[in-house]
Amino acid sequence: MVHVRIIDEDTILRGLSPSIKAWESHTDEVTSPPPGFRILAESDAAKVQAMVSSDNTVFGVQFHPEVKHTEKGLNVFQNFISACKV
Fold first, then answer.
1. Which one of 12, 14, 43, 46 has the largest count of C-beta atoms within 10 Å of its C-beta?
2. Which CATH architecture has domain 2-84?
3. 61/25 Cα distance (integer angstroms)
């Protein structure tokens, strides 16, 4: 488990601030967002726990919102669906 700090509630992390506990993938890591992306969340384990493209069409997460161990994982998916309807 990792303590994910929400930096920007925009889009997929809306309503989840200030943090959630999440199951994390420890084998892969984005160390800095690519051009055109901004960081949405961080942790002590990974600087980029969640990111989004500048046009809000591409998302990336380091943690696993789909597992029951992640707090509010269902909310992440609901927010993702809402973001895709725009």
1. 12
2. 3-Layer(aba) Sandwich (3.40)
3. 9
